[in-house]
Amino acid sequence: MTETETNAYDVVVLGAGPVGENVADRTRAAGLTTAVVESELVGGECSYWACMPSKALLRPVIARADARRVPGLRQAVQGPLDASAVLAHRDYYTSNWKDDGQVAWLDSIGADLHRGHGRLTGPRTVTVTGPDGGERVLTARHAVAVCTGSRAALPGLAGLDAVKPWTSREATSSPTVPGRLIVIGGGVVATEMATVWQALGSRVTLLVRGKGLLPRMEPFAGELIAEALTEAGADVRTGTSVESVTRENGTVVAVTGTGERIEADEILFATGRAPRTDDIGLESIGLDPGSWLPVDDSLRVTGHDWLYAVGDVNHRALLTHQGKYQARIAGAAIAARATGETLLADPWGAHAATADHTAVPQVVFTDPEAAAVGLSLAEAEEAGHWVKAVDVDLSTVSGAGLYADGYQGRARMVVDIEDEILRGVTFVGPGVGELIHSATVAVAGQVPISRLWHAVPSYPTISEVWLRLLEAYRDA
Fold this sequence. Notes:
The protein has 476 residues and is an alpha/beta fold. It contains 16 helices and 21 strands. α1 packs parallel to α10, α3 packs antiparallel against α4 and α3 packs across α8 (188-199).
């Protein structure tokens, strides 16, 4: 391609991760011509450097931990994990970082893929610079959807680039197990990657600036996970800042706020995310490069009736499943506006991402797992709801005892006393990730407590915790 070409579409999607793919799927299903622009691998962060590789790494870790709690099985699984087999399993689930399958899927729905770096160059206009340096101009009759996601945010420590620190990408794609690993941060990436590499043989030191792990969940979630990591052999230190980092003869040296030197082979910074909007031409339409993009509930950017920001870039809920939910809403809204259909934008309508505000689920795949949906007690109180927290020790449920000897876990539901509905639910314990969708249905559906009494949990399952929670609320 040696000269500029121009192509017109109904919709142009910037970014071919799960979010961009789902926008394209919905707009193509509505009969709108759609172009998708991608500078890296089709499938995006989730497929190659986040959800899929991290969970492929974690699954053997969690399975072994569960097996060690089962009589008659624990003696058979006392040895170390086969690290090479675990890494190979990870590579399989990333398709060895090749996107042929994802490209074929885009082709199957009739979306056109444009490889290269896409930048807005005016209203409804995206210029794509291809791998060969040639340019192609794409114009959108109805909408441009920015689905470029987020990247790891690194702190402003002097000389950090020279250290070559790990971010989430290196942590999920490393071909080898480091002998010693420092993890900076206390959120999901930090706790999951500390769990993985500790189990694969690294000596992990987890340094957390705040008071505990998983600060956006109920406090007991982080407490139980910190205890488990410590028991597994990790060195977990809260209230610890890192003032400098250097690499000396291949060894990383982190100096804490107290002056202590901690040495490791690698260091992972899991200290937050930043939007991938710094080089997509936002300045050409009066927006600030590198900024999060505020949107309404149909995911349309404030002040631009043709521009949508879907997924991480709008900073509403930085989770793949929530981004895909937004993409389904945005795609439907784009189609409705394009065809002149009535927009159903009231809360819980077909064109409103209402769940972003009140029913966002999340699972942290550590050992034990932590899963939550909706508001924590503190968040509900801060929002002005009149609420009561009801807690149950999960070990009192028969299904939990059958699941694992010495089962440790906790459940909480946050009840709106005035409306008698659930504002939030949190589970912590082995296997609870598969419980959270029942809670999500209850929170998103605003199911009354009186009706939940008629949702009978099967015996003996861990789901019987629902009955214990309802009994605790009744008896409180």
